[in-house]
Amino acid sequence: MIWQENACCIVMLTKTFDFIKVMCIQYWPSAKVNSENYGDLNISVLHEEELANFHIRTIQVVKKQGTNEEETRTLLQFHYTEWPCHTCPFSNAILEFRRRMRAVVGSRLQHDNPIVVHCNDGGGRSGVYLSIDANLELAEEEDCYDVFGYLKTLRQSRKGMVETLNQYKFIYDTLEEFVLCGFSWFPVKELSQKLKQKSMKDIETKLNEYQREYQQICKMTPRFTIGDCAGGHRGDNREKNRDVLIVPPDNFRPYLTSFQGNTFTDYINAVFVDVSTYSTINIH
Questions:
Q1: 48, 153 contact by CB (below 8 A)
Q2: What torsion do the CA atoms of 24, 171, 117, 109 make, to the nearest 10 degrees?
Q3: Rounded CA gap, 261 and 263, in Å?
Q4: Contacts of 52 (CB under 8 A, 6+ apart)
Q5: For the Tyrosine specific protein phosphatases domain, which residue ranges apply (predicted)?
Q6: Which of 99, 171, 176, 224 matches a 20 to 30 Å C-alpha distance to 44?
């Protein structure tokens, strides 16, 4: 299909292996130095860039046309690796993934070179991503959103697009975050100029850009419940917290495997922190 439709890019939204089962067969070679044959197609990875939440691969496809004739094409694969099945990722991470994909693929994108989007079943996560992408494009062109209308159109083509209520709500949450925050990145060479701009106060709000951004971050910071941070609130772990009100959520903390006498504890008041190129590489 990739060859037949002359696709310029693949957006993959699932891991190959998750929840103790195969979610998607890997259709590219594991090592850059090797190539694999699939029928009359030879596949090789020319370049791979690994980031915190996704990989970018440049894939070369060679098709034998005859005895001594070959046709070679290259395409990009954007592989999002931090979206577990039946859950939702962070909105800002998906927005950055989509921004990066559009920036890189923009020059290649034509009507006769489509983008192929897939997850493990082609429904839930694919429908969410397509809805976000289409509505952001609609906002750029017509300054409006139509989540309901677009999803209704999607489901006329394929059932099961956006499988759960949480996924449907995630579309709105992501679009809201884009409206409130936009794209906060800027080129390094513009840093001095940005510092000056952010120091200027708004006439109406009396706030500069630093203050406005910090207030927005505080509003958007999720509020964790005691259940989210159950490990830190256990009686045998309370003494390990410098402040009983500042404890790590269980989903983001490292779990220790050391033994102390006859008692065992996996708790430490710390969390994993991503950087742009690696996931959970820092512990804070």
A1: no
A2: -150
A3: 6
A4: 82, 93, 274, 275, 276, 277, 278, 279
A5: 95-169
A6: 99
Q: What is the Cα–Cα distance from 133 to 66, expressed in whole angstroms?
A: 40
Task: Give the best-scoring range by mean pLDDT among 106-115, 134-143, 210-219.
Answer: 134-143
DSSP bridge partners of 212: none
Under 8 Å between Cβ of 253 and 272: yes
Distance CA 249, CA 232 (A): 8
* 255 Cα distance to chain centroid: 24
Q: What integer best gives the mean pLDDT of the chain?
A: 86
Q: 255-274 burial by CB neighbour count: b if 16+ within 10 A, else e?
A: eeeeeeeeeeeebbbebeeb
Structure tokens at 242: 């410098």
Structure tokens at 9: 């890019």
What pLDDT sits at residue 266?
84
Closest CA to 102 of 43, 159, 155, 56: 56
Q: How many CB atoms lie within 10 A of CB 12?
A: 24
How far apart (Å, rounded) are the C-alpha atoms in residues 116 and 138? 19
User: Is pLDDT above 80 for 260?
Assistant: no
- Residues 104-136: b if buried by 16+ CB within 10 A, e if exposed: ebeeeeeeeeebbbebbeebbbbbbbbbbbbbb
- pLDDT-based confidence at 56, cuts 50/70/90? very high
pLDDT higher at 182 or 200: 200
**Of the candidate ranges 103-112, 162-171, 173-182, the one whose mean pLDDT is the lowest:** 103-112
Q: How confident is the model at residue 276 (pLDDT cuts 50, 70, 90)?
A: low
Instruction: Give yes or no for a contact between 135 and 148, defined as CB atoms under 8 angstroms apart.
Output: no
Torsion of CA 235, 237, 243, 247, to 10 degrees: -110
